Amino acid sequence: MSEAKLVPSMHHLGVQTRDLDNCLAWYKDFFGCTETWTLTTFSELTHSRLPGITRLTEIGVADVRFHLFEREGHDPVLPGGNKPQFQHVCLATGSPDELRSWRERWIELYLSGRYDFATDEQPTDIVVDADGVHSCYLFDVNGLEFELTYVPGGAA
Asked: Residue 39 and residue 45: Cα distance in Å, rounded?
C-alpha cells in the first residue's frame, strides 16, 4: 500500500495585535487588503488557545489572507530575539521596480503619522544576492517582520 503524498497550501497568516483598528488600517493601506469578515464570538478551543481574544478580522488581497486578532492584556514586548519563532514571512514581488515601490510605500505610510508603530526601525536597503535575488526587510505596525523579494524568472 502506497502512502498518499501530503501537500499543504497556505490558507492564512495569523497576526496578533494590541490595536486591531491601527493594524487593520495599516494592512489595508500597505497591502491593499479588503475585509472579508469579523468575529467577536469564539469557541472554547479559541478561548483556551488565545485567552482574552476580543475580535478577529479576516482581510485579503489576491490569494494572500491575514487573520488579524486582538487580545486583552497584550504583552508589550516586541517579537524577535534569539528564541524559536517564525522569524519573518516572505512575499514575492513581480519585478525589482515593484520591490522598490513596496519599500517606498512603507516609508510613505510611516512618515504619514497615521499609524502607531511598535518599532521605529526603517526598511532595509534592497540587497541583491549572488543569484540575482532582490530582497528588502520591513516591519508591520506590530513589529512583525516581512521580507519582500524578487526572484528573477520567478524561480523558487
From this structure: 15
Average pLDDT, rounded, for the chain: 92
User: Whole-angstrom Cα distance, residue 80 to residue 139?
Assistant: 11
The H or E element spanning position 136 is: strand 134-139
- Hey, is 103 helix, strand or coil? helix
pLDDT digits (tens, 9 = 90+) for 19-60: 999 999 999 999 999 999 999 999 999 999 999 999 999 999
- Grid cell 517606498 is found at 104
Q: Edge-to-edge strand order for the sheet containing 134-139?
A: 89-92, 145-150, 134-139, 127-128
CA distance 138 to 103: 8
Give the C-alpha separation, 56 to 154, whole Å.
33
